[in-house]
Structures are given as C-alpha cells and as structure tokens.
Amino acid sequence: MKITAIKPILADGGHRIFVFVKVETDQPGLYGWGEASVEGKPRAVAGCIQDMEPMILGEDPTRVEYCWQILYRSGFWRMGVIGLSAISGIDQALWDIKGKEAGKPIYELLGGRARDKVRVYTHFGGSSPDAMARDAMSKVEKGWTAVKTVPVPITRYLDGPKVLKQAETNLRAVREAVGDDIDILLDLHGRLTPQMAIQYGKRFEPYQPLFLEEPCQAENPSAMAPIARALTTPIATGERLFTRWGFREVLETKAASLLQPDCCHAGGISEVRKIATMAEVYYAGVAPHNPYGPVSTAACVQVDLVCPNFVIQEMIDPDSAPEAQSLVKDPLPVVNGHILPPSKPGLGIEVDEAACARRAPDFSINRAGSLARRNYGATFEDGGIADS
What we know:
three-stranded antiparallel sheet; TIM Barrel; nine-stranded mixed sheet; single chain; 14 strands; Enolase-like, domain 1; 2 domains
C-alpha cells in the first residue's frame, strides 16, 4: 500500500476555521483523516501540508513512525506551530488508515484500553459573578462533571487589589453554585507574570480548583516553577509546546504536574503518546488541550484511553458549536460527562467533505479580521500590547 495524495481541506466551523487533512492511498476506499487547525493561521498550515506531501508520497502509510521521522527530520529546520501542526494532522490520518486496515480502533494498536471511558470537560464564562454561576450550572445540568473558565482579566505586570478581589468574588459564586461534586478548572491563559499568578493563585486556593492552567507563558519553564512551589493547586501547561523536547524542561524543573499536549500541534497521536509516557516517570498527569473540532477530539480520545496517567480531556460543548459538528459524520457523543470508547476502526469518525465544501472559508478582510480580533488584539489600559 502506498500514499498517493495528502490534501488539506479548510472549513468554517463558526468559532474558527478548521484544517482537516486527508491522506489517500492506492487501496480503493482506504484513506485517513486528521486535523491540523491553528487559530489565525489556516492557510499557512494548509500550505505547509502541501509542501510536505512530496516527502512521503509513495511511502507505506502504515509505517507511521517512519513517515513521522521523515517529515520531522528531513526538512533540516526544526519547526514551530505551523510545521508541527501539519505533521500532527498527517500523523492522525496515518493512524486512521492503519486502524482501518486492521479493522480496529487506534487505541487497540497503541496497547489497548487502560480505562473504560474518558472524562471530558467544557467551558463556561460570564461578565459577572451571577452570570458565571448561571453558565456553569447550565453545563452541570447537561451532565458535565467538570467545567473550565478564564477567571482573570488582562492584568498588568504588577496590579492592585481590585482585579484580585473581583476574580475571587467570581470564583466564589461559581463554587457556591455548583457545589463540591463538580470540578472547576481555571485557565489563566498565559496572561500573568509569575508574581501576579501567585497572588491570584493564593486567592483561588480556598475554592479548590482542579488545576491552574498556563499561569504564565510556558516558553520559560524555570520562571513558572516558582509558581508551582508557592501554591497547593496543581499547575497545568503545554498547549503551546511541541514534541517531547518542548516538554522535557517543564518536567525537569517541576514547573507543572499536569501536561497539556495538543494532538493538533505537539506532533500528533504518535508524539502525544510519547509525551504522556515521559510524564509518567515524573508522576505527572496528562490532560490534552483541545479547543478544536470533532476530529481533534476523536484523536485525543484514542490516546486518552491508553495512557495510565490520563486525567481529563478538554472539548468544546457540542451544543455550542453546531457548525463544527456538522462538518463530520457521527461525532463522538458525550454521555454523562464522558466519552465511551469508539468501536469503529481508525479514529471512528469521518469528515463530511460535502459539508466542508458548503462551508468554505471566507478569507475576505472583514471575515478574517473578525476571527483574528476574536483571538488576538489584547491591550493594557495604557495601550501597550498584552498576552490575550
């Protein structure tokens, strides 16, 4: 069997533009799907996928590791989010082919299930304590057992008590509303300096969040490590890191005890599995990052099912993203806050190419600008640029 084509397929999923990857083979009807979505960079990733296509055309798609090594090592330059996202999408698609050829879900080829179901969480928000509490409760009433929010505003390098008190008031209202049976997860979005992260974190501790995600940017783990030492709440990070090499220093410096590699960015199913195995040595858990589409969710679930140190899986609430759900056939259902092991071979999910064609992205300035402003453009009160 040989790879005959690798095609990026772009589709507007409402909250972002998705980049799906289709790997075709010379076996009639046998192809694989992956996802390589990156906020604000869909055409860059699509172009990178097209650049990589000639590198493994004619190769056996079931030699997943061999193809991964070609794509990662043969281009001379080590890659960032664009290149690693392209590799990630291709890797997922190769595993999809391998599973389909074997007639088994991917998790069976990765060593078999280590658990019977995958716990998932989704997001909530609001502009006031009451609004946040109501939104969190709306998720709980639908069966979610864990919910996440960004509890901090854009915060200066050093800031005063006003923002700290407001953030604590908001979290208190949510905890009182949902009770102690529901886990609250806090994403600080890399917005804070270490000194402000510690101040926020100490105020959040009485409400026992499951973890604090990205208390500061992860590019300098040694600067994040003092936060972990100062707080009792576990620190999570990793959505903006790539490959085992990107996570090594986080573990060695004890900057975080929960890793969040992204199947669409960190190197695909192959690499996320290796990152999780490396984390076991440090008694660290994994909770893959996934604010993307149903294909990304399906890829994450395959890894979650086999990793002994898996903790919880992020996903967009399907009810809040109908456009994204419409781009695939039979997305994996959420049952009482969990996803059950898919029984179909490969990823267990198929992209609807006709639906993607109907939702071809609009790259006009107005549409592209609207999506970009949704993800970027944060500033401080004095007009300085802030991490969003």
